[in-house]
Fold this sequence. Notes:
Helix content: 55-70%
Distance between the termini: 95 Å
Structural class: mainly alpha
Amino acid sequence: MILRRIVVSSLSSFSSSVRLLSSSSPSRSYSGDDKLVRLKHKDWLAPNEVLKIFDNVKDPRFLMSAYEHYSNRKDYQPTESLYTLLINKLGKAKMFDEIEEVMRIVKLEKRCRFSEEFLYNVMKIYGNLAGRINRAIEVLFCMSDFGCWPSSKSFNFVLNLLVSAKLFDEIHNIFVSAPKLGVEIDACCLNILIKGLCESGNLEAAHQLLDEFPKQKSRPNVMTFSPLIRGFCNKGKFDEAFKLLERMEKERIEPDAITFNILISGLRKKGRVEEGINVLERMKLKGCEPNPGTYQEVLYGLLDKKRNLEAKEMMSKMISWGMRPSFLSYKKLVLGLCESKSVEEMDWVLRQMVDHGFVPKTGMWWKVLHCVVSKNYDSQADLDRITDRQETPG
């Protein structure tokens, strides 16, 4: 009898333990995401309550299993907001395969409609985060399957994605599909095409697209001309670049600082520094305010031509205007002043350089020392003995 009581008591205790574990298992299955436990309850959940539950999930690994559980509930109500929340959380966690699964579910979903904004968001995640440009293109072409059609916003996003990825061969295929997708070509679309053609080196075709604007009842803007001007400058065709600038003025399109900077930089790279300085003066007369990049390009030009004292004057103006010259311009100016043994000017530049947080490297210090000591020693032998001929690149 004693043995029987012990067995019965043990079985009863075991049964209670099993019931206790069973009752606590829902919370354990979500490993600390307590909010998801509410999906196990029988109480009715409104769509906004479901959104709060999923929004509070800390570990994205539980999102898909939680969604599966929710989809089996009697009060399941799929909404675009819920799918958007899931996709954004998965995208932030770089769980792109899980996003593919959500999109498979979404495509089969017949209980709610989806907006272009939802699909545009999906394309951005595919293109910008996942690097799955082909999937972004597929979403663009299958929007009608979701009950909506693309606008120029989605169409232009995909075009720009292809330009950024330098997939120039695909751009034409997408562009000619505009009528099929019901998209009207606008100025933004033409600007993207011009940018792509310029970056691919096809300047002639890009230039011809300027004639398409009136046909599409659109008007070019500064973003239309800047890539063309850059393309001609890169090829050293400055006559064509300046003709475009004149065309902008005739069509009352105001060039901005970026446009002028492109010209100044292009001229500087071809050694035409004086013309670059003239462009700086021209932009001032046009009422276009130069920015730090403008003065930096002129400064580089002066340094390239070893016009060091003019460069120091330009640098002094930049600093007085609250601008911060680059480390490279400081380095070039210090070395240039070393060559001309302009110790006082070099001392000023070094002080400004350190004040802006730049630390001269060892090789630069040796050249500075060589310059300073050479002012006080007549004999090259004495100079070589002091510097010990130690020079390190820097």
